[in-house]
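Notes from the pairing session

We agreed to fold both candidates in a single pass and log them together. This is the raw record for the first candidate, unedited. Please don't reformat it; downstream parsing expects exactly this layout.

Candidate A
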Amino acid sequence: MRTRSTWPLLACLALTPACSTDGGSDAAPADLEEELVVVEDGKADNYYSDVAAEYEVSGRLVVPMSEADFADEARRGALVTNRLTAFGLYLTTYLTDKFRGIDSNNDGEISESEVFFRNDGYGGFHAMVRNFSVEALDVAADGQGAYVVSFTIDVAGPRNLLSLLPRAENTVGDLTFELKMPKHATVDPESVPRGEIRNFDPGKYQGELETVLCAIRPHVEVANAFPAFDAFMADGVFDITMFYGYDYNEARYDLIEAREGFDQLVGLGFTAPVSSFEALKADSGPFKLQAKADGREVTFEVRLFHADMFQTDRKGQHDLAVSELVTRDVFFYNGHAGPYFGFYLDAAYAATVGYQELASAPFGDKQQLVLAQGCQTYSQYADMMYASPAKSEDNLDVITTVNYSYGRGTDQLLASLLKVDRFRRHQPVDYYTLVGDLNADWTNRAYEVFYGVMGIDGNTRLHPYASVENIGADCRSATSCGDLAGNACLKIDGRKQCAALAIAADACPEGTAFKKVARQNTIIGGACVATR
């Protein structure tokens, strides 16, 4: 396998395929509409399954402190934070997969300078810790002269993670496992010794160890939802930025992928700002495509950036990356990443956008989607952006990876977000489909990358282009009900009436009911239909 790496902890591979979508004329004859039919209650079943799940780990941890420390709220908080930060990092080391190294110069050997991990036999359960999800539930004296913090922290991993983890002996109830770490270890979250901890192996450690008993249980799975396409299209421009990070491997996969991105956009029918990939500069402007969304004319704009555009201006590269991140509807980062790192944009780290910068970036309150396409970005990339006063799960969705990323699926996700029919009418795709397609890629499936999305609990499950005001109105065809992507004309109780498409019953407004609908005997989702 071809891999790329930057940080002496992580490795990523970038291999991007290409795909296309149909283009065509502006108008669609009504007789080309696809007919949808109602499926009677009790006649069908739905099932969604993807490759990963999120879990909650809980436990108790001794926090060395004096009675005076405990009485000082600030001091107590700092001591607890540093202990929990250390726990999260050592838990990460235990749960994540590790490998000896990568032959980045393709000479057939892994030299000393290419070694990443010296503990590749320790732990390894295809899982990742969401570091900033840790929560101190209680800090109290244990009656034996020590203070103990009760905590929870989230992890993501395969759906069979509970069967992979070795159960601690003499325990009952929820699955429990043991984590060994240096006794009373603390880490300042502002200064994390990543390399040292990521290479920790309790079997080789010379100092005193402590054992933390951890319970783990699965979280309730988040329901499906749509990206905020209606908000993205509201200003008449759907803008997307593709920012490719630097790759120091000889093959320069970042440039290969950027070139494939150029070719993909041209293949999708976009008008390129320049005649060739070689002519593309940082100030060339966007690729453009005219389309329709929710019955209105809109412009799709995609901007593409790579490291070699900024060889004499690394500060400009850094600043532009931050500017594009906070202003575009959708921002793709495709490159090296990892826990407590950030976006790696140039060989000398001069343009790197550090993970803590994501919290202080000048975000606004607009709806956004960010794809953090790099190794183990589940760790804290979404949470750092949510730390911005302007961002929350109400206005930001983030797609991340649990394990090492191989750069595959970016083109498929881009094509899905930009999906139009042959009449260039936009076709919104839901998150289960987007994430499922990423995980279904052969490389992602074979190497257990595990993509997931955060922040979609509050997203709409009603189709973004649904015309709620037309539900129940008489119709002859869907064209009289609203945008064809989000509305249907269904025969119900002998009468043809307008319905709004949806993916869950709780999306339907008062006075309507959720019915499953099918196209050519295949259930494609549901619709809200009038009940009166």
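Candidate B (folded immediately after A)
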Amino acid sequence: MLKNLHVKNLALIEEAEVTFNEGLNILSGETGAGKSIIIDSINLALGEKVPYEMVRDEEKAALVELIFSVENDYQRHALEELMIEPEDDCVILSRKILNKRAVARINSETVTAKELKQVASVFIDIYGQQEHQTLLDKRKHLVLLDSFLGDDIAVEKAKMKDLYDVYHVIEKELKESEIDEASRNREMDLLRYEISEIEAADIKDNEDNEVEERYRIMSGAAKVAKAVSVSRDAFFGEGMSVSECVGRAIREFTPVSDFDDEAAEIYKQMNDAEDILNGLSHSLNSYLDSLEFSDEEFYEVESRLNVINNLKGKYGNTVDDIKKALEDRQAKLQKYEDFDVYREELLQKYEFAKKEMLDQCEVVSGIRKKGASALTFKVTQSLIDLNFLDVKFDMRFEEVSPSENGFDSPEFMISVNPGEPLKPLTQVASGGELSRIMLALKSVLAENDKVGTLIFDEIDTGISGRTAQMVSSKMNEISDSTQIIAITHLPQIASMADSHYLIEKSVDNNVTLSSIRLLDHEGSIEELARMLGGVMVTDAVLENAREMKRLAENEKRK
């Protein structure tokens, strides 16, 4: 669940921090007080596109930080899959904006916005006007159905996807094999040439590295040889070389070498130096001999390197790639040379894979159709709870070309008035009805939902009175198992709050600021009275608010 929200330097908010609780968290306030900023800020921390114009003071950093508690094994497993390790069973998501550059972090570790979204989806769903509109996208209906079925369909769907992947590969190979004889002969000639080219090169394992190293050494050998030769002459050449100087010094010092202990030690050091020089002479001469090579040998190495690099340019970056390319071409040539046999075997494999895949699609479709009946029955009951008195809600299935999701193309159908036939949801529902339908679906899906937090923005669009009361009851029902954070302007919904927050706007030194605070019981009643009565909050309105709060509390205790 979402435990804490921290916002700094965004829009009308200079700095605000909110601690959310379990159950139903309601946010209310006058129009223009900044309610939308809260949702926009949360979206920002969840990885949505950064609206840089929201930054209040461009000279300072803007920050949004969310702290989520890990509530269940599903979340722990999902985080493990994403390689995220909770700290004290919490995960912190944040977005910092400075100089029109946004930095996303998870537990203080910098991540991409995409990674932030992936982790956020483990914890939270946000439903606003845009999400309500997703009900008008027929493709989303299958997603909602499969979400409802959850583990009941997961294994069979995974099996279906695997079978489809096998079928799709064979189907692609079959299409690629549909070439005429002339094209096939041209392809075979090319394959034979490429096979011959690779086989003729006869490249050995790791030969490319060995030849490159030999070429590098030979290319630099002349320069190295010159340096070795000059060094050797400096140490051992004619005239006043180092070796000559040391030899002369030893000859001169020999007669006095036993004069005393110090002279003997110096003489020993002179002889040690001569031994070192003799070893150095051997090393220099040996190394110089190893650097000698013929122009013919260098040409052979250079030519071999060109052959290997040419093959790499055509068939892959490594010797293993080249050998794999040879195997692939040999196999393909064999298929073309025995084309009739290959084609017949491929057709048999295709038909077998297609049947297996379609059979599994049938299995999944059967589960979906059975599950659709259960889903639409439960949604219908929820819609009745939400004041759709004569509603009919169903799901129509069409069969389309198979994909990894099967061949089902289901669509929600609804009738909201007596005597009207079922029609696609896209043709019937108004904005307010879409909000309630989404709430009804969410109340049913919440039974299998593993996210800990739902945020409802504009869930009260187009509703009032008795319908608003029923919406509040449904939200209260969902909040028994899932944390809900909802922005509303309706007192019927606000009265049901377990935690009621007031968003208000003030002016300080000609600067407009928004703030958010948790209301106590009496403060919540006063806010309900404002929502009921507008500017004039009379004693009667206040008493009405008190009664509304009392009735809501009684309902929550049921």
